[in-house]
Amino acid sequence: MTMAARKALVQVAKEFGTPAYVYDLDVVRARLADLARVFAPHFSVSYALKANPNPTLLASLAGQVALADASSVAEVHRSTEAGFPADRVTFSGPAKRPRELRDAISACIGGLVLESVREAAEANRIAAELHVRQDVILRINPATSPRHFGVSFSGKASQFGVDEEELSTAIERIQSLNNLKLTGFHIYSGTNSLNAQAVSDNFAIFIRIFRRACQLAELRPAKLIFGSGFGIPYLASEAELDIDAIGRLVIPSIAEMRSEPVFADTMFVLEMGRWIVGPAGWLLTSVVAEKLSRAVDFRMCDAGFNNHLAACGMMGTVIRRNWRIENVSNPDAAMHRYTLVGPLCTSIDVLASDIELPEVRVDDTLAIANSGAYGLTASPTRFISHPEPAEIVLIDGAARDATERGSPAEKPVVRDQHRGCR
Ligand SMILES: Cc1ncc(COP(=O)(O)O)c(C=O)c1O
C-alpha cells in the first residue's frame, strides 16, 4: 500500500470511527478498465451483488458493467434502485419462493436463472397468472469438476442448476412451458481460482456444454453466462490471477463462436463479484487492548468474525490462514509477531495468529485487505450486539459515508402488479 493510501485509511478511521469498511471506487473503476482491456468486446461483465450490495458501490457499478446478478428479490430491487435497467438484471439462487418469483417477474427482470425444472414449472404458473412470457436462462451443473478452484460446485450432486446428464429432458420440459422463453444458459461451477490455466480449462468445459445445450434447444442464445471463478490473492504467499493469460487462452474460442451464425447475436457474459470489488475494500479495526499470555502477544481489536467472517477463516475455508493485514498507523516500526483477536467472547474469534506486523499499539488502526467482497453482509453482525461497522466510500480520494441503515431485505417491494414491461 502506498503512503498516501495508508494516510487516507488513517484519516477515515479518525473521521468515521472503527470498525469501518472502506471501498475505493477508483480501484473498482481501474479493475473494470483492466477487464475491458482484456475481454472487450468478446465478453460483457455481470456483477454478482452477493459479493457486496452496498447501494453507493452499486450505483457506481451500474454505469460501468452490463448486467447485475441478484440472488434474492431484495437484490433485484437493489439493482434497479441503483440504476441497472430491470432488463439487465438476472436472478439466480436455489430456493426462490413463489413470492420472490412473482416479485421478480413483476419487476420485469431480463433473465430468470432457472435452477431446476420444478422451479421452471412454478415460474411458468406465475408468469401465466401475470399474463407475461418471462425470459429464462437455464443453469447447468456440469458433470466435470474444475481443478484449482477454492470451492467447486460441479461434478457432484448440487442444489444449483440441472445436472448436465438431465439437460435434454430439462430443455424439452422448459421449452414446452408457454409462459417462459428459454434465452440462454448459465454455468457457475467454481470460485476463487488464481490459476489462469484452470479458469481456461473450466471455460472450455462451459463452451462444450453450451454448444450442446444450444443444439438440443435449437437456440440462438441471447446470453451465455460464464461464472468466472476469478480469484484474488488473500494470502501473502499468493500471486494475482493473470487475466491477460486467461484472455490469451480463452478469447480465440469465443471469437470463433461469435463468428458462427448461431452465436452471432449472443452476449457472452463474465459473471463475477469478488475479483471486481474485493481488492477495492479494507476493513479498518482499532486495537482496543493488549495482553501477553504464555509468550503469545495478543492484540484485541474492535472487529472480529461478527464483522468479517471470511477474514476469520469461517467462510468455506478448512484451515484458517492469515489474510493480508497492515498496521496503517505505525507502518515503519520494528516488526513483531502478534495474535489478533476480535471482541467476541469466544476463543474462535481470531483475525490472525502469529502474524508479523510493525509494532502494534493500543489505538492503532489495522487494515484488513481484500475486504471489499463477502465482508459486511456476509458476516453475523448481530452476534453479541457490538456496533455495526460503518461503510465509507472513497471517490477521487475523498471519503463519504455510505453506511446503510436497516436490513437490506426490509425494503418495500411492488407486489402483484406487472408493470407492462413486455
Ligand atoms: C451463481 C453465482 N454467480 C456469481 C458468484 C460470484 O462469485 P465471485 O464473487 O467469487 O466472483 C457466485 C458465488 O458463489 C455464484 O454462486
From TrEMBL:
InterPro entries: Ala_racemase/Decarboxylase_C, De-COase2_C, De-COase2_N, Orn/DAP/Arg_de-COase, Orn_de-COase, PLP-binding_barrel. The active site is at 345 (proton donor). One of its GO terms (biological process) is lysine biosynthetic process via diaminopimelate. Residues 21-372 form the Orn/DAP/Arg decarboxylase 2 C-terminal domain. One of its GO terms (molecular function) is diaminopimelate decarboxylase activity. The keyword Kinase does not apply. Residues 401-422 are annotated as: Disordered. The modification N6-(pyridoxal phosphate)lysine is found at residue 50. Its cofactor is pyridoxal 5'-phosphate. Pfam families: Orn_Arg_deC_N (PF02784), Orn_DAP_Arg_deC (PF00278). Keywords: Pyridoxal phosphate. It comes from the Bacteria. The keyword Ribosomal protein does not apply. Residues 27-277 form the Orn/DAP/Arg decarboxylase 2 N-terminal domain. Belongs to the Orn/Lys/Arg decarboxylase class-II family. This is Diaminopimelate decarboxylase. It comes from Alsobacter metallidurans. The lineage of its organism: Bacteria, Pseudomonadati, Pseudomonadota, Alphaproteobacteria, Hyphomicrobiales.
